[in-house]
Structures are given as structure tokens and as C-alpha cells.
């Protein structure tokens, strides 16, 4: 199976249901050219994929080519690199792609030689010269443990007032603020004294419920307190008052998106998304990725009978499997049925979005390592005709796979199959 290189590109950013103007003040989780890649390689020396039950996240930040990023314990002064001369040759600085800008925990520092270098949480970031391909982590624990793979959320998080925290809610388009029950908080673009919502706690006939602040609460970083017309105090974040949505039943629901243009999820950081992609709600499969015209996007993935909350929507992502398959899930006549989601020539990777190069030179968007496709039999937005198209592998009595594409681990004892399923946030 061929290895597919990552491509530099221009990534157009968009959070679902939000305008560019509303987005402007919310930092991205990663800048252009910084990606997230799965560590390790699921291919054996014979080229066969090995699939096991280990679903524990093993991701690391990587550069635009998918090469693992590291930090160095001897970088004790924020914004300053202690890795110079021979060290710098073995540990090249992670440099920004053209047009990349600092965002969130990511900043740019200038080295002594004038070269710009990425820093994460103030610590300079590097690649390792002896890493040869995406997923390598040969630099981990080098120099008596001084070097560390940079993993997502490794930096210290922001502080929040008591009763508020930020959680990864992909359906909201980023890390969203939640209340003590895990319910999504929404930012209101308007004057609280004229919002016509007076209910401060459920049950409530109003759709939007003001998220009130305790009497002893004070301004805290980006959090301020506004006074409502009835005299109650309400939390505000980055100048926008916070509310809950009565239609959010479960923790981290975001059913309030699209109900009222004045209310958007209160994002601490936002996730990048290509202009060619949207998020669409489906009756049976939750929120899924779709094209700009609303056509459902699919991925080719491995299925195993292992319980997971994601199985309720389409089955969990196995990033390493998606990276290993690349674009080879569909070639030749398959392309008449499954059509690649093409990326512009200027497309750049960022966060979980990467660009693969097909054998014919065309560029294709991938999410969490999985190349994305539309299905020819889907005729209108929202169709899911391609869901659960199976490619079942048969095993012999010794549980050895006949297929060269995948092979069960000896200790797995569970039948697996490759299938087409939706791509979701």
C-alpha cells in the first residue's frame, strides 16, 4: 500500500452556523500547517493492516507533512530556544507555512538566526531529523527524557469561573463552554435588557435560559457580569451574555444551533473546516459532514464489534487505519460510485483536516486520516444511500484473514469488516 504525502493548502475556516464576523474573535485550536496525526503504524512489514481493539487515543501534533512535533525540557525561558548548533541540526525548528498566523496556544518566536519557530504554550516546538514518516516518534524521551511528543491539550488550559468549563464538542465546532451539568452555553449577540427572556432556571417556557452568576461572583479574565432588567446578574464571555437552550436535553447537546441567529455556542476555541465542507443534521445519523451543496460525505473504515458511544452515529474513527489506507480504498471503477471530495490546488492542512494526493495527481480532503467521498446514488441533500456498504473479510478456522487488506490479531477473536460510513465531526 502506497504512502501518501500531505499537501500544503489554503484552508478556509468556518464554524457551523456562524458568520466570519462572529468568528473573528474566537481563536483556532491550531494554525494553518499544524495538524494532528496518529502515532505508530498499523501496517506490518508484509504490508498487511493489523486491526486490534485498542481505541485509546494516541494522537500527536504534527507539521503540514504529518511529521511529529516535540518540546524540549531545557527550553526553560518562554519564547526562547535552547536548542542550537548540533542540537538544531538534529531537532529542526517547526517553522510556519506561508501565511500562517499565531492563534490560541500557538505563538511565533524568532530564533537567534532570525528564523521563525512555532511555540505552544510558550515552549518552542521542533521536529526530529530521524523521524522518516508520519506517525514516527523516535524522538520521544531522547537525551535522558528531555524530549517529549507534543500531544493535543498538553499546554495548561485557561482558567474559568467556578461552575464553568470548556469541553471538546465537535458538533459545536470547537471547545465550548458548559455549565456544571455539561450543558452547552450559548453567547448572545444583543442587549440582555432587551432580550425578553426572564427565566433563570429550568423548567422554563422560554427557549433561552439566562445563565446567572452568584451574588459573590466577580469579573474573571474574559468573563464579566452583566445586569438584567429584573436585577439578576448574568455571566458574559468576551462581551456576550451566556444562556442555556431549553432544547438541550443531554450533556453537550447543541440543539440550539440555527434556532436563532443571535445565539451561537460559546466557543473558547474553534475548529477549522474547509470551505468545501458543511455540517448537516440527519434524522437517523446525527450531525454529519456534507459538501457545500449538502451532499453527505463518507469514509472507508474498519468496523469491529466493540461497544462505543460513536456506534450510535456511524462507528468510531481509527485515525491510524485511515492514514494507512489513504486513497487506496477507492480506485478504478470504484470512482464511478464513490467520488473523492477534491481540495483546491491551494489547500493547506490544519488540525484534523489533511490533504492527500491521489495517483492521478488530484488532491483530496481527509478528516482524521480518512479520505472523504460522496456517493453517486445520493440524489439530494441529506440522502444516506451509501451508509453501511460492507466489504466483509472472511476468516479461516485459525482466524487468519484471507484478505491482504486487513488481518485480525491473534488475541482479538472478533470478526472485522471494512465498510463505507458517514464522516462526522
If you had to describe this structure to a student in words, what would you say it looks like?
A hairpin with a 5-residue loop joins strand 22 and strand 23. Helices cover 5% and strands 28% of the residues. Among the domains are: 174-270, no CATH class; 277-422, no CATH class. It has helices at 20-23, 86-90, 142-145, 319-325; strands at residues 35-38, 49-51, 59-62, 70-72, 106-110, 116-120, 123-124, 147-149, 165-169, 174-178, 186-188, 208-210, 223-227, 233-237, 240-245, 263-265, 267-270, 277-282, 286-291, 298-304, 338-340, 353-357, 363-367, 370-371, 373-375, 389-392, 406-408, 416-422. It is flat and about 70 Å long. It has 425 residues and is mainly beta. The chain contains four helices and 28 strands. The longest helix is centred in the C-terminal third of the chain and has 7 residues, at 319-325. The protein starts with 19 loop residues before the first helix and ends with a strand. The strands form ten sheets. Strands 11, 12, 13, 14, 15 and 16 form a six-stranded antiparallel β-sheet that branches. It has a three-stranded antiparallel β-sheet with strand order 5-6-7, with no helix packed on it. It has a three-stranded antiparallel β-sheet with strand order 9-10-17, with no helix packed on it.
In terms of structural class, how would the helical and strand content be classed?
A: mainly beta
Mean of all residue-level pLDDT scores = 83
Number of helices: 4
Strand percent estimate: 25-35%
Q: What is the CA-based Rg, rounded?
A: 23 Å
Largest sheet geometry: 6 strands, antiparallel
| Percentage of residues in helical conformation | under 10%
Poorly predicted sequence stretches spanning 5 or more consecutive residues:
1-22, 307-312, 393-415
- The total of beta strands comes to 28
Bulk shape = flat
Distance between the termini: 27 Å
